[in-house]
Amino acid sequence: MAEKRKYADRREELIKAVAKRRRKLKVLAIEYKGGKCQICGYKKFQGALDLHHINGVKEFGIADKGYTRSWEKIRNELDKCILVCANCHRELEGGAVQLSVVRRIEKRGEFGEILRKLGQSRAKPHKKMGKV
Question: Which residue has the higher pLDDT, 64 or 58?
Answer without folding.
Answer: 58
